[in-house]
Amino acid sequence: MKIFQAVIIDPGYEFLAIPGQICEIKESLPLVACGDNDTMLMLTDFLVEGLSEEESIQYLTQSVRARLS
């Protein structure tokens, strides 16, 4: 996976996560835990190797939904 652009997000709640863990999908984009456990990165431009931009978003959102089901 290559990340080209991300935005720092304050989720407004406490959370425990491993840095790099996808915590939430917001506005169809993944929110990823940072090392300080009080901010997340919203990945706004990224590609999973071998997939298009649309396929990359679908891949990550489906992966998160499957783990949380």
SSE blueprint:
Elements lengths: L1 E8 L12 E5 L2 E5 L6 E8 L5 H16 L1
Antiparallel strand pairs: 1-4, 2-3, 3-4
Largest sheet: 4 strands, antiparallel
The structural class is: alpha+beta
The number of domains: 1
Alpha carbon gap, first and last residue: 24 Å
Q: How large is the radius of gyration?
A: 12 Å
Amount of helix: 10-25%
Morphology: globular
N-to-C order of helices and strands: EEEEH
Summarize the structure.
The chain has 69 residues and is an alpha+beta fold. The protein has one helix at residues 53-68; strands at 2-9, 22-26, 29-33, 40-47.
Notable characteristics:
69 residues; four-stranded antiparallel β-sheet; 23% helix; alpha+beta
Walk me through this protein's architecture.
- By secondary structure, this protein is of the alpha+beta class.
- The protein has one domain (about 1-69).
- The protein has one helix and four strands; from the N terminus they run E-E-E-E-H.
- The chain has one helix at about 55-69; strands at about 1-10, 20-25, 30-35, 40-45.
- Strands 1-4-3-2 form a four-stranded antiparallel beta sheet, covered by helices on one side.
- A hairpin with a 6-residue loop joins strand 3 (about 30-35) and strand 4.
- The longest helix has 16 residues, at about 55-69.
